[in-house]
Amino acid sequence: MYKLKKTSGRQVSVFIPNALVSRIANRLKTIQGFEEAPVTSRYEAIRGRVEDKTVIIYYSGSVVYDESLERFRSMLEEVLYEYHKTDGMVVGSDEAGKGEALGPLVIAATALTPRQAAYLQSIGVADSKIVPENRIRELAKRIKQFSLGYSILRIPPSKLNEMFEMKEKYGNLNDILAKGHYKVLKSVLSKVSEKPAQIIIDKFDSSKTNRRIRIIENALGGLTVQAVEKGEVFPAVAAASILARESYLRWIRRNIGKEILEKIRKGDYASVGSKEKMESYFKMCYIKKA
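The structure assignment produced for this chain is given below.
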């Protein structure tokens, strides 16, 4: 079991499988000093206080607790470990930036044991789309520290624009993504000593998924790869989504000033300046389509 440094005053949001809501609510009641309180909405399964800090478990699977409550977090980890312990080592990959005209395309992969998966879920690792932006950087640091291995591939807009112009060589966006998933998966697999129980990619292509997955499988020496819609329910894929998102956001911070970024968000693309600058900021085919 992993331990966090003791801090206080910050609420952590965790997302657990719905099947575990009742089990975790019952385990919460056994924590010494727990004081149950009336729920404040029909969405809450249980509400109470531990060490004078509020804990709320929702029927949806959302759990909110104070970061200083290590006893509660370790209990969460244990229940999640029981849930994941037969999964074996899982490798997952996901991307960020595919649906956004601004910024790079990032693909990432991680490898997690059941214990690592349970720990990372217990501190809030989930689909990056539902994780607050102010927690992404910290969670990415934890993933890098505690995973068996990880890999991140970031393709800046300028390079992507070149690739889009050379369709015969690189294919379309989904072909580029497939090659990116292969590269990060291969990198992670080279860092682990055992064959993974599962390799899972968050499904990125609705039309030619099977063909692209077969290409990835062949390139990985025949290992089975699954493309799963909403694959972030698997902790390894969720962790990859966090790494990809953190890399995307870091590129935005380093390359685009706050003032220009605010104007871009309001649709003022002219404020960027020259055509060369536009091509360094944007995936130009997205702009042309818009």
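Interim note for the steering committee: The mean pLDDT is 93. The radius of gyration is 21 Å.
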